Q: What sequence folds into this?
């Protein structure tokens, strides 16, 4: 048994229908010999009249006119428009194309976000590196305070480089420190002057940090020509 489709109206396709249903539609006058039909195995839509023998279509009942031939109009009536060939559905974007577009948009947004984060993170990291170098340099020279304080207590004067256990300025060179001078400041206080050596970092390279001992109070004061934001808290201000 075949499964039939028939065209009705402008572009409407109706079915599937078994043979007997299609024949009944013909009997009732719902469809005529000119109605386009199709079933599996056909290369294209064809008029029902082509299958009259196959379906054993009955002859028109007495007193009723035979079905109009394809494209003809009843007397006094406007010609009916021919049944058009069904139109293939309009092609849209495939699932893969949509996914590709979404991925492209996500990629562009991701690059924009990465650029914004980089603009914030890179300068912040550079600031962190500078603070770390200053803190490391301060930690290298801080132990000299006890030695200077002990020398002053014993000798009642300030030590200088090359005296006692104190080395030359260059002998104190470390990763961040180029030289350390030990002596007496203009205000009469004993102290330490550490000069940073950080090539390529103009904010630190060649800048001095001072550790100043007040002999009367025995208190140490830290100061520097480096920007406060890179200094340990005890050296700011």
A:
């Amino acid at each position: 048994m075949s499964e039939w489709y028939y065209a009705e109206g402008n572009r409407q396709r109706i079915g599937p229908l078994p043979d007997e249903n299609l024949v009944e539609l013909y009997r009732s006058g719902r469809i005529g010999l000119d109605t386009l039909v199709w079933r599996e195995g056909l290369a294209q839509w064809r008029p029902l009249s082509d299958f009259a023998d196959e379906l054993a279509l009955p002859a028109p009942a007495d007193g009723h006119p035979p079905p109009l031939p394809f494209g003809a109009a009843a007397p006094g009536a406007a010609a009916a428009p021919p049944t058009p060939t069904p139109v293939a559905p309009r092609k849209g974007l495939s699932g893969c194309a949509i996914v590709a577009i979404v991925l492209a948009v996500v990629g562009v947004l991701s690059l924009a976000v990465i650029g914004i984060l980089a603009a914030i993170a890179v300068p912040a990291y550079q600031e962190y590196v500078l603070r770390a170098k200053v803190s490391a340099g301060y930690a290298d020279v801080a132990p000299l305070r006890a030695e200077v304080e002990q020398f002053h207590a014993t000798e009642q004067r300030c030590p200088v480089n090359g005296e006692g256990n104190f080395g030359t300025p260059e002998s104190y060179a470390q990763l961040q420190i180029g030289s350390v001078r030990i002596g007496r400041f203009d205000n009469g206080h004993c102290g330490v002057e550490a000069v940073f050596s950080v090539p390529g970092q103009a904010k630190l390279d060649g800048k001095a940090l001072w550790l100043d001992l007040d002999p009367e109070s025995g208190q140490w004061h830290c100061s520097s020509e480096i920007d406060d934001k890179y200094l340990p808290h005890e050296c700011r201000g």
